[in-house]
Amino acid sequence: MIRCKHIDKLCALAMALALMLTGLLFCGEALGIRPASAAPEYSRRLFDDSRVHTVDLQVEDWGQFIADAPEEEYVPCTAVIDGEEFHQVGFRAKGNNSLRLTEEYGLSRYSLKLEFDHYVDGGNYHGLDKLSLDASFQDNSCLKSWLVYDMMDFMEVPAPLRSFVWVTVNGQPWGLFLAVEEPEEAFARRNFGADHGVLYKPDYTSLRSENADVALRYVDDDPASYPNIFDNAKFDVDGADQARLIQALKTLASGEDLETAVNVDEVLRYFVVQVFVMNWDSYLGHTGHNYFLYEEDGILSILPWDYNLAFGTYALGMTDPIRDPNVLLNWPINTPARGETMLNRPLYHNLMKNDDYFAQYHAYFDQFLTEYLESGRCEAVIRETQALIAPYVEADPTAFCSYEDHLLAVDTLLEVCRLRSESARGQLEGTFPSTLAQQAEHPDAGVDASHVDLRALGDFQDLENARERQDAALRAIP
């Protein structure tokens, strides 16, 4: 029996503390305490994708910013997001070929990055450290990236949050952009938890180089042999981080025990979407970039990024670009890259050499076609989103195309998805050739896509026609 003259007081205090803790658990979110399992606040605000949001960039000299944009140097601004002000936000132009061509064509509609903690330590937008404003370069539908990220969500591949925003500059209209959650700290916490692993954005320094590390090929055990990975880490990395990643690449190169080095199931689902949308400005293309690499406990995952040139519209950097819609929309799902490229992409090639993984890839492809394309979900996503953004596209002062061309691009995107789905279904069932070698033997097999003009999705002619419109919008900014 416990004997203590203070026992009653201690019990009363314990009960009071328990009641206080219970109250915090029930009311903590109202008090600013977010449960670990809750979605971050920014996902319910800017990335509520049921409406078009507003972003006003308040900049001292917008004309000078546009003139200096190709340098990709950060400058400060006040960002007013849905009426809420955020001061000393760093922002700059972003892009690779899109940035270069925007400059070359004398245009001013650049995609942008907003970094909330660039000038202010700990700065954030309700927990978000960085976002992009995608200009829909060479995407007259304004829907390519939106649609592919929705496909990735459907296949349960971690993808950035996104929403459409009406951007103004110093109060004057600038256009409709796609806000995209940048894969950095907040993205990692949201998808992988507080004790997440390491994110990288492998990218080449020159296409003339071998870029073995961007292709995720094992070179040797020296971290210095992987500058395009480790120099593009989103977090600080140490020797242990480097050693784990290199060991994973070594295992991947061996082709054995791949599940000890690769999140196989998730990677297969990623490649289903990647192959379906014919995105060659990517890991499976000539450049081999435009993806994020995630490593945790020695296991690698590949994550989606940048789809404005998807759906067979990538020609930049290709010495002999393919423009025949019959070739593009029937592109093989089993050998989605030419031999010299395929052999240098071990994350796809070595997985597909395993019969079990290859069968699972086909099973996921069947699921994707059945439940996303053939069910009508794809068309519904496109049409509902088109209706949401239509008034903003029509009023966009810096658009790369006319509103009529936008409507044509949306219809073309729908037809591309329909025909690509029909071709992929035929390839799965063996009625259409599913490898480049088979297609060489049967060049006329597949869906007839000769009526599709892929230039309607966005082409260089649109860039030439947009300059006068964008110049007028630029002059209107105070």
Features:
478 residues; alpha+beta; 7-stranded mixed β-barrel; 3-stranded antiparallel beta sheet; 10 strands; 41% helix; globular
Short description:
By secondary structure, this protein is an alpha+beta fold. Helix content is 41%, strand content 14%.
Can you describe what's shown?
The protein has 17 helices and 10 strands. Mean pLDDT is 92; it is low at 24-37. The chain has helices at 7-27, 41-44, 62-68, 97-104, 144-154, 185-192, 227-230, 239-254, 264-276, 325-329, 339-342, 346-352, 355-373, 377-395, 403-429, 436-441, 460-475; strands spanning 53-58, 75-81, 84-94, 111-115, 130-134, 162-169, 172-181, 198-200, 291-296, 299-304. The protein is globular, with a radius of gyration of 25 Å. With 478 residues, it is an alpha+beta fold. A hairpin with a 2-residue loop joins strand 2 (75-81) and strand 3. Helices cover 41% and strands 14% of the residues. The strands form 2 sheets. It has a 7-stranded mixed β-barrel with strand order 1-2-3-4-5-7-6. It has a 3-stranded antiparallel beta sheet with strand order 8-9-10. Helix 9 packs across helix 13 (355-373) and helix 13 (355-373) packs across helix 15. The longest helix is centred in the C-terminal third of the chain and has 27 residues, at 403-429.
